[in-house]
Design brief:
Layout (H helix, E strand, L loop, with lengths): L1 H9 L4 E4 L3 E5 L3 E6 L9 E7 L12 E5 L2 H10 L1 H20 L1
Antiparallel strand pairs: 1-2, 2-3, 3-4, 4-5
Helix pairs in contact: 1-2
């Protein structure tokens, strides 16, 4: 979990908060939730990412949700997919804006 925290702090520049079950982070643009492996989620890491401006809760405003069997899978995703993550968030914001203005 230390490497995940390091990547989120350095690459995504989020302020982090951690509990026994999850890691949350936020910067001025994005909010991130990492659920640590547990029996309830089939012992997988779950990452959820949304935009700060559209975020209400993780159920209804999650732009990205991915699961990983290992911490290495999650680390690889965070290290190599930053541009794609921001592209997905931009597309999500566009949809949210369209819905809000209709």
């Amino acid at each position: 979990m230390e490497k995940i925290k390091e990547i989120l702090k350095e690459k995504y520049q989020v302020e982090l908060s951690e509990t026994e079950k999850e890691l949350t982070g936020q910067n001025s643009l994005i909010t991130i939730l990492v659920i640590k492996p547990c029996r309830e989620f089939d012992y997988e890491y779950i990452i959820r990412i949304s935009t700060v401006s559209a975020f209400v809760d993780w159920v209804s405003t999650c732009a990205i949700e991915k699961t990983f069997r290992t911490s290495q899978g999650l680390i690889g995703y965070l290290e190599t997919q930053e541009a794609d993550i921001y592209k997905q968030l931009t597309a999500y914001l566009s949809l949210e804006y369209e819905e809000a203005t209709q």
